[in-house]
Every structure is written in C-alpha cells, then in structure tokens.
Design brief:
It contains two helices and 17 strands. It has 266 residues and is mainly beta. It is globular. The termini are far apart.
C-alpha cells in the first residue's frame, strides 16, 4: 500500500513537471501570442524624451468596437519611455477582429494639478496580429499620415459644445445590414453609439448615414480647441471585407459646433 501511494505521488509530480514544460515551451515558441484565450493586446511604447518632466499621462485606445483608458504617473514616467498595454476581446456582439482592422491610440501629457492637456501624440494603426500582441510607438518619428510623431501642443481657439458627425458611405450593397458601433473621440473624450444601420440607410436620401455624437463644453483635459485631434471609427462584421473596424482622423480646423468625419468610405 505504501509503495502504491509513493508511485502515485511520483506520477503526479512527473505530470506537473510535464505540464510546466509544455506551458513554458508554448511561451517560447509563440512569444507574440496573447496569454489570455480570446484576447489580443495593443502595446503602446511612448517616447518621453521630448517632454519636460512629465507627471501624468492619459492614454486612450480604441479597437474592435471597444475603448480603453489608462493613466500613467510616478514611476511609470521615470525613464525615457513609458508603456501602456491594452487588452481587447477578439470577438464581441458586433465584430470579430481581423487582419488590417484599424485602431487608434493617443497619449496626452497633462498637468498633474489642473489636469489640463499640455501636448498630445496619436497614431492610427492596422491590426497585424489579431490573436496576440501588437506593438506601437507613440511620441517619436516624423509627422506622417497615420502618426502625429512627437508630442504637439494645442493653442487654438476654444470650441464650445462640439458635435462630431461620423459619416458612413457605400453601405447600400451590403446584405444583412445590422447594427454598427460608431465612436468619436476628441482630446481623450469618447462618445459611442450603436446604430440600426438598415433603418438609417432607408431614411437617407443619398445612401449616406450620418451619426451625430455630442460632446460637452469641456473635456476632462480642458476646453476643446482648434488643433485638437479627432477620430471617427465604425465597427461591425458587415463592414467586411476588408475591415471590420474602420477609422479616420483629422485635426479640428474651426470653432463651429459641427465637425464632420467620414469613417467609412470604400
């Protein structure tokens, strides 16, 4: 009986050793895969070299119909770079993530006492690894079509109570048109709405859906201003091919209330 118990213990120990080796080997062979099943991450590496003693950063990310926000302070900002990792679901009620789906990440350098924004850097990206990690650099490089490059201050005139109108074009040929998630973002503030796309398309005279998303007089980071970056995105499986999530961005250029952006146009 004693020998039987010892053999059982030995077999159990060997089993746990084998299981540990399998897990470790999987992590080595697939280093870019997200650890959690059904998840993927966007991992922002933020260059702080051009900031003057940053005390607090707000980092906002949108992907696959979901938005996330993180704040970095203290030891997070002690070196020349900071990191913010965002985990998203591969699948939700609206959309399943795929290659080339679009997303955005913005980082805001803010005054730790007043919470006012001092500068920002944003990037719009294309999904490269929908089942794992997607690294992205912010706050460095040149000002390109999909990246603002280094952190930029905004000193334009105040915009009161802006409304971002997100446009969706070329949906008339889509079969089984259903709900679509629509998001707008200015200065770290996000507004999100799920629309009945078929109903709105039937009501449209020009086969274009326009979704107004209203913002208050100020954001958490101070008043909206000319020069602030705005994004508009739409998410749904019916938008495929080629992208289940499409995003566009531009800089605000006037002090009027209505700011149009065409998120879906192909």
């Amino acid at each position: 009986m004693m020998q039987f118990k010892l053999n059982n213990r030995a077999l159990l120990s060997l089993f746990f050793v084998f299981l540990t080796l399998v897990i470790l080997s999987t992590m080595i062979v697939f280093p870019n895969r997200a650890l959690a099943a059904g998840k993927f991450t966007i991992d922002a590496k933020i260059n702080l070299k051009n900031l003057n003693n940053p005390q607090k950063l707000k980092v906002v990310a949108f992907s696959n119909g979901e938005n996330k926000t993180k704040y970095l302070t203290g030891n997070d900002l002690k070196s020349n770079t900071a990191t913010a990792s965002f985990q998203f679901n591969q699948k939700n009620n609206l959309v399943t993530v795929g290659h080339n789906d679009e997303y955005f990440v913005c980082a805001y350098d803010i005054n730790a006492q007043t919470n006012e924004m001092k500068s920002y850097s944003c990037i719009e990206g294309n999904m490269e690894n929908p089942t794992g990690k997607n690294p992205v650099n912010i706050g460095s490089g040149p000002d390109l079509t999909l990246s603002t490059g280094k952190f930029k201050p905004v000193n334009g005139a105040v915009i009161k109570n802006p409304t971002v109108v997100v446009w969706l074009e070329n949906l008339a040929g889509k079969k089984d048109l259903k709900n679509i998630g629509v998001v707008a973002m200015i200065k770290g503030e996000l507004r999100y709405k799920i629309i009945d796309a078929r109903k709105l398309l039937q009501q449209s005279n020009d086969k274009t859906i326009r979704v107004p998303l209203h913002f208050g007089n100020e954001s958490e980071l101070g008043p909206f201003r000319v020069g602030d970056m705005l994004f508009g995105c739409v998410s749904a499986n019916v938008l495929n091919p080629t992208e289940g999530t499409e995003c566009e961005h531009r800089v605000t250029s006037h002090t009027g209330q209505i700011h149009n952006i065409i998120a879906r146009h192909d």
